[in-house]
Design a protein that fits this description.
The complex is a heterodimer of chains A (334) and B (290). Chain A is an alpha+beta fold. Chain A folds into 2 domains: 4-232, Rossmann fold; 238-333, Beta Barrel (OB fold (Dihydrolipoamide Acetyltransferase, E2P)). Chain A has 9 helices and 19 strands. Chain A is globular, with a radius of gyration of 23 Å. Chain B has 290 residues and is mainly α. Chain B has one domain: Orthogonal Bundle (MetI-like fold). Chain B contains 13 helices and 2 strands. Chain B has a two-stranded antiparallel ribbon. Chain B is flat, with a radius of gyration of 24 Å. The relative contact order of chain B is 0.14. Classes of the chains: A alpha+beta (334), B mainly alpha (290).
Amino acid sequence: MGQIRLNEVSKSFGDVEVIRPLDLEISDGEFVVFVGPSGCGKSTLLRLIAGLEDVTSGRIEIDGADATAVPPAKRRLAMVFQSYALYPHMSVRKNIAFPLRMAGLGKDEQMRKVEAAAKTLNLTEYLDRRPRQLSGGQRQRVAIGRAIVRDPTAFLFDEPLSNLDAALRVNMRLEISELHQNLETTMVYVTHDQVEAMTMAEKIVVLQEGVIEQVGSPMELYSAPRNRFVAGFIGSPTMNFANGEKAAGHGAHSIGIRPEHLSISTTDGAWRGTVGVAEHLGSDTYLYVHLADGQGTFTVRAGGEYGASHGDTVYLTPDPAKIHRFDAAGLRIE
Amino acid sequence: MPTQHSRVKARLMISPAVLLLLGWMLIPLGLTVYFSLLRYNLLMPGMEQWTGLTNYRYFLTDPAFFDALRNTLVLVVGVLAITVIGGVLLALLLDQPIWGQGIVRVLVIAPFFIMPTVSALVWKNMFMNPVSGLFAHAAKGLGLEPFDFLAHAPLFSIILMVSWQWLPFATLILLTALQSLDSEQLEASEMDGANYVNRFFFIVLPHLARAITVVILIQTIFLLSIFAEILVTTTGGPGTATTNLTFLIYAQSLLHFDVGGGAAGGIIAIILANIVAIFLMRMIGKNLDA
């Protein structure tokens, strides 16, 4: 079991309200990602669930029982920290065994569980090393190992990949996803990286300034963002927005169109512009097109072989079915 | 990378400093060794004569020497125990967010700035004096007999004074070490089910190990040569109850006017201090390796 329910939960530090009262339900076995720009309160929300911060008001339920005043150790949650928070003076074995030791398990039982966790995470060879003798990815795995030996009802991850280099991050992302498939335990994952959110999550919670902007599956957020913020935050490269005349034509205050939903032509199209920068990624080419009417720069995804360069005149045409329309308050118009 | 040429020049240029330091060390040491081999009494100036190792034999067979050795040991170990344990506890307290933290920290450090002679006199006359001291007043207030600290527990009293002076040093070093502890580690251990006591013994104390080592090493060096506190309070007495090695050497040379014997004692003290240093480095120096 690993069901978590937040009811009117808020958090203030002094006069600053970091989390406005919010409701959220995380069902058993779900992989939920909290995503948002830095300072949006996503880590604070996670720490509230973990019990490392006290809620200012509201109620947290874990598996149906009120956990608002329960100390962190008793919530049966395991957390993986951004800095891994390994104990530097203990070997990997002792690090992983630490929660079991605190729980008062016998030595044999401890060792059996540590070996099992180490096997899952490919750490068996490193059990007798100290954390400082390990690479970033290995440390990350030890931190996860320390979390899984406790057999928790849910895992909490606080930006666990942000200290790793790009290649390793992709690997660890897969490993964590795979771990979730195998364990089928609830996981709550905090990140500022929308790519991580899109690739790993079953449910994404987009936060901004302590308010939940939208909750939904990755594809829901991608295809039907509830407002301009979510539309701009989810998707890479980010959505192009246009106001005024272009939007009025579609009966909206502003419209958004993703780079992959614009078609490009050198002869004719809806909007004329000149290519500023062309980024050739091999599989795709991203063109940054300065619109001729002076209404900003649009990003366009073109095929990998697309041979445009700086200064070329191009025409962009949006896919009419994929235009997102927003009203004056930034909310989506269906 | 320095070239051969620049290395030679560099050596040439630092050589005056090195030579000065070498002379600074070797001349007094050489003179002490020389004096320790003479029969050299200040009451009979001009009558120095070669006696070989007689001074050493007398010093080492003097019953006061063994008392002094024991007292030195008790003094050092006692002060170390009080300052390290007290320092850890005080550092834990000062690490808490409290109102007026800055002022409290300055106050805690204050004893370190007071001259040993002054602090010893304050302790002797204002606190421990059996007639007019504060402790005597407190005891009388409680209806108890005032305790004459310096007469009945002289070594303990000295340990108390020296500990009071060195506690700030230990606290300061341990506090900075405590502040460098990653708070996520503490939170992680909290999530792992460690209560406050467990967190202290499994996370905080191992983190402080290196700082504690530094405190012990530095303090030992200074505590082996405690002198002022003894001179202004008990002058080594009653009997030899508070005579440590340093004070014994002083007494030998300047109270008994036996420069030769004092010099021999000095050489023995150097040897002992080096033995202690070697043992200390063997025992706890490995904590200093990164």
